[in-house]
Amino acid sequence: MKDGGAGVDNAREGRDEPDIEAYRPLLFAIAYRMLGSVMDAEDIVQEAFLSWNEREQSGIHHPKAYLCKIVTNRCVDRIRGAVREREAYVGPWLPVPLLTEDTRDNDPGAAYLRKESLSTAYLLLLQQLSWSERAVFVLREALGYEYDEIAEIVGKSSVNCRQIYRRARKAVSGLETSAEVPIPKSEKLRQTVDEFVAALTGGHPGKLIGLLKADANLYSDGGGKATAATRPILGAERVASFLFGVLAKFPSDFSYRVADVNGQPGIVTYFGDVPSSVVTLRIEAGVVAAVYIVVNPDKLGHLPARH
Where are the beta strands (DSSP E) in the chain? Predict the structure, then answer.
């Protein structure tokens, strides 16, 4: 057995092997968009690498497509297995927030983590699609794959993938027409977020309401493990009232910082050094159309402490 293992190792050393680690950002981008979970996405990428290392690779002619297929299939398994869990979830479900502020322009993986398709609103739209629609849509819309490449990954014909993509795009557009509204430039987004924070922490209800769209919504995800609204808050005045009510109950060691969350400016709050919530906004034409607050501790455990 030892000699056989050494022979395989020597054979591998004798040929050029692809640097599969270079595919990690891409694989994570696929898994995170499909699942909306940082932890699950990281687990699935690691499982894909283990699968690669455990099998004979001489017959794999397209490592990138092979790894993408493994990740996609395992995401589909997770999606199917999580149906009952999602149905039993307490209150609104929101994606696990992803801090993207540490990505650098010269990082080859940065392009996958600085796209509009990472925003909370976009990820929520993806959750409405079937597994096949979600997979095809992510690979085509977010990552720019050709239909032939997608077909190889999802195990369908390119013609079928084209049809699935059209159906998914129509579904997404039908779910929320505001998804078609162009997202403002990052400078404008940051300015609106700064104004939002200043109005809230400065105790200016009028200014805050002025920054909110009249029919703005607020979604608060506590998952039954933290205090949160179990139903969406509707209307600018109600949203403002809810936010000021929450802020009034914060402990004296509360602090916050504006950070890049899901590719856009967001807010991370802390009790002491521990992250207590992440707030992201959907901004349309300079006003806040939706507020998303994640307070479920299970979705914040991967965030670093504040130093």
Answer: 212-221, 233-234, 254-261, 264-271, 274-284, 287-294
Residues 147 and 56 in one domain: yes
Q: What is the CATH number of the domain that holds 251?
A: 3.10.450.50
Structure tokens that stand for 247 in this block: 């802020």
Provide the whole-model pTM. Answer: 0.86
Residue where the block lists tokens 């890049």:
260
Please report the pLDDT score of residue 12 as a whole number: 42
For residue 85, what pLDDT is reported? 85
- Token pair of 201 as six digits: 């922490």
What pLDDT, on a 0 to 100 scale, did the predictor assign at position 174?
58
Q: Edge to edge, what strands does the sheet with 264-271 contain?
A: 233-234, 212-221, 287-294, 274-284, 264-271, 254-261
- pLDDT, tens only, 246-274: 999 999 999 999 999 998 899 999 999 99
Indicate whether 155 and 214 sit together in one domain.
no
**153 and 241 both lie in a single domain:** no
DSSP string, 37-58: -HHHHHHHHHHHHHHHHHS--T
Total domains present in the chain: 2
Q: Which residues, 6+ apart, have CB-to-CB distance to 254 below 8 Å?
A: 269, 270, 271, 276
Residue 97 lies in a domain: no
Domain CATH code at residue 152: 1.20.140.160
pLDDT at 9 over 70: no
Last residue of a domain, one of 165, 180, 195: 180
Q: Are residues 176 and 192 in the same domain?
A: no
Residue 19 pLDDT > 90: no
Give mean pLDDT, residues 46-67: 82
Nearest one of 215, 219, 195 to 206, comparing CA atoms: 195
